Amino acid sequence: MPGAKRKRKPSTWERFVKKNGFLYAAAGTAVVTAAASPLIGGVPNVVQRLFRDDRPTITLTDDSATLTDLSLAYPAAVAQPTEAPAGGTKAGVTRTKMVIYNSTGATIRVLDIQAKVRKRSGPLHGTLLAQTSQGGTSEVIGLALWQQPAIARVLTGPTALGDPYFSVQSIELPAGASQVVEITAIPDRHYYEYALAVTYDRDGKQKTAEATDASLKVTGYAPAYDAASEGTPGSYAAIDAARVREIATSPAGD
Predict the structure, then answer these.
(1) What pTM, to 2 d.p., does this model score?
(2) Distances from the Cα of 220 to the Cαs of 16, 20, 41, 71, 75, in angstroms?
(3) Which residues contact 215 (CB under 8 A, 6 or more apart)?
(4) How far apart are CA 50 and CA 37, in angstroms?
(5) Is residue 101's pLDDT more than 60?
(6) What's the domain range around 19?
C-alpha cells in the first residue's frame, strides 16, 4: 500500500529480552529481598510486627491420665475385657493441657477460653470400662460442653463448675512468654467433639485463635450399657445395672 511503513523486525537481542525478561525480574526481586532481610532486626518494633504472625501459637496434649475418673466408653459391646481395648473414648470428663506461646512480638492478654462444639450426638453405650484413680493436678478451669457459649469457668470439684474464670482476671503474656493451662471438659448425656478457642487482646484489638486435636472428644455417661465392667487394666470385673446407675451420673442433671 502506498505510504505504509514496513514493520521493523525485532533484533536478536530484543527477542531474547522479551522471552527471558521475567528471569531478570525474579532475580532482581531475590536480590532486594536478600538485601532487606538483615535490616529487619534493626527497624522499630512496630515495623517488625508486620513480619510476624499476630496469633499466638497454641499446642494441645491429652492430659486425662491426671483425672480421678479414667473411665472409657466404646460404641460396641466388649465381652469380659482384661485390658482396655484400643479406640476407647473418655467418659464423663476429659482433660487437656494447653500451652499458649506468645509468638506475636507484642504483649497479649488472654481474655477467655471457650469450647467450640463441632459434633454432638447420643452417648456411646456399647461398653463402659469404669476406672478411678487419685488424680494429681490442681488446675482450675472447666468447660460445660452443653452450655452455649461454653466459656471457661472455675472448677470447684471433679465435675462442678462455678463463676466464669475470666470475669475478674486475665492472663498477660509478654512477647516470647508461655503459659500452661489445664482445661477440664465436662459433657452432659451426649458425645462431643470440639475445638478450643482463645480470645486475646493485642494492641487494643480483640482477636481469637482456635486449636484442635484428635483428643478433643468426650462422651457423657449413658443410662445403660450393653456391657459394663469396673476395675483397673488386668482386673476388670463385670458390674450390674445398679452399679452403672451409681457411676453414670450427669453434671447437667439430665
Answers:
(1) 0.77
(2) 71, 65, 52, 11, 12
(3) 60, 61, 62, 64, 94, 96
(4) 13
(5) yes
(6) 10-40
193 closest CA partner among 120, 105, 89: 120
Amino acid at 247: I
Cβ-based burial of 14 (10 A; exposed 0-12, middle 13-18, buried ≥19): exposed
For 208, other C-beta atoms within 10 Å of its C-beta total 13
User: How far is the C-alpha of 200 from the C-alpha of 76, rounded, in Å?
Assistant: 42
Is there a single domain that holds both residue 146 and residue 192?
A: yes
Residue of 165, 161, 168, 221 lying closest to 192 (CA atoms): 221
> How far, in Å, are 68, 191, 218 from residue 158 at the CA level?
8, 19, 15
Rounded to a whole number, what is the largest CA-CA distance in the chain?
110
Residues 23 and 128 in one domain: no
* Residue 48 located in a structural domain: no
Where do we find the cell 462455678? 162
Which cell numbers in the block locate residue 177? 512468654
Q: In the 8-state DSSP scheme, what is residue 239?
A: -
- Cis peptide upstream of residue 44 (ω within 30 degrees of 0): no
In eight-state DSSP terms, residue 44 is: -
- Residue 36 CA to residue 25 CA, distance in Å, equals 17
pLDDT tens string 120-173: 999 999 999 999 876 555 567 999 999 999 999 999 988 899 999 999 899 999
- Which residue carries 536480590 as its cell? 31
Please give the DSSP secondary-structure letter assigned to residue 12.
H
Let me know whether 242 and 188 are in one domain: yes
- Per-residue pLDDT tens for 182-196? 999 999 999 999 999
